[in-house]
Amino acid sequence: MTRQARFFIGGFLTLLLLVPQLRAASETQLVEGEAMVKKVIDILNKMHPTKDPLTPQQTTENEHHKDSIGQMIDIETMSRVALDKHYSKTNSNDLSTFKDLFKRLVVKSATANTSSNKVKIVIRQKTFNKNQNILITTKVRRRGDDPILMKYEIKPDSVGKLKIIDLILDEESIMENYKSQFNETITKNNFKELISRLENNLKKVPGKSTKAEKI
Fold first, then answer.
1. Over the stretch 86-99, which tens digit does the pLDDT of each residue have?
2. Phi-psi domain of 21 (left: phi exceeds 0; alpha: psi -120 through 50; beta: other)
C-alpha cells in the first residue's frame, strides 16, 4: 500500500469516527434551539393582550416580557443584515440609536401576532436550514383567523450563545423585508429619516399582520 493510500484511508477512518460526535452535537443544538423557542412561547403566553387598555402594572409586566425576548435576539447580526451596505457607512452613534430602535421593532413584530389569550402556539418542526442555522417552526392559531407559521432562525453568537437572527412569517423573512425598506428609505432620503420612521412606528399600536412592520 502506498503512502498516499494509507493517508487517504487514515483520514477516511478518522472522519467515520467523528460522524457520531458531529451528529450528537447537531442534535444538542436543535434541542437547545427548541428550548429557546419554548421559552419565547412561555413569555408570549404571559403577556397581557393589548386590545384592551392596560393598567400601569400590566404595561410594566409586558415591557419586562419584551425585554426578556429582546435578550434572545442577536441585534448585531440583524442590524448588519438589515442595513446591508449602509452599515459600514454609518457612524457609531447613529448605529447605537438604530440598534436600540430596531431591537424594539423586531420584538414588536414577534409579539404583535402572538400575545393574546386567544392564541395557541405549538412547535411543529426543528431542523437546520441551508445555511446550517437552526430553524424552529411553530404554528400560531388565533381565534377567528387562519393559522400562520412562524419560524425562528437561530445561530450561536460571537461567544457561542444561541440567539435569534430572523423571524420568518408565512415564508417571508422579516430581515429581508426590513433590508428592502431600510435601503429604500436611506437611498431616497437619509439615515436620519430612517431613525425618525422607526421612532414613529414604535409609537403605533401593533396590528395582526403576519408581515414585517411597515416603516
1. 999 999 999 999 99
2. alpha
Which residues are within 8 A (CB) of 103 and not within 5 positions of it... i.e. 6 or more apart? 70, 73, 75, 78
Task: Indicate left, alpha or beta for 183 from its phi (over 0: left) and psi (-120 to 50: alpha).
Answer: alpha
> Model-level pTM?
0.83
Q: Report how far apart the first and last C-alpha atoms of the chain are (Å, whole number).
A: 67
Domain ranges of the chain: 3-203
From CA 119, how far away is CA 137, in angstroms rounded?
16
CA 204 to the chain's CA centroid: 21
Closest CA to 66 of 123, 113, 110: 110
25 neighbors 10 (Cβ within 8 angstroms): no
Which residues, in sequence order, are CB contacts of 145 under 8 Å at separation 6+? 208
User: CATH assignment of 3-203, given 3.10.450.710, 3.90.226.10, 3.40.50.10260, 3.40.50.1000?
Assistant: 3.10.450.710
CA dihedral 141, 112, 58, 46 (to 10 degrees): 40
**Contact, 215 vs 181, CB < 8 A?**
yes
Q: What is the tens place of the pLDDT at every residue in 90-129? A: 999 999 999 999 999 999 888 875 555 567 889 999 999 9
* Dist. CA 106–CA 78, nearest whole Å: 9
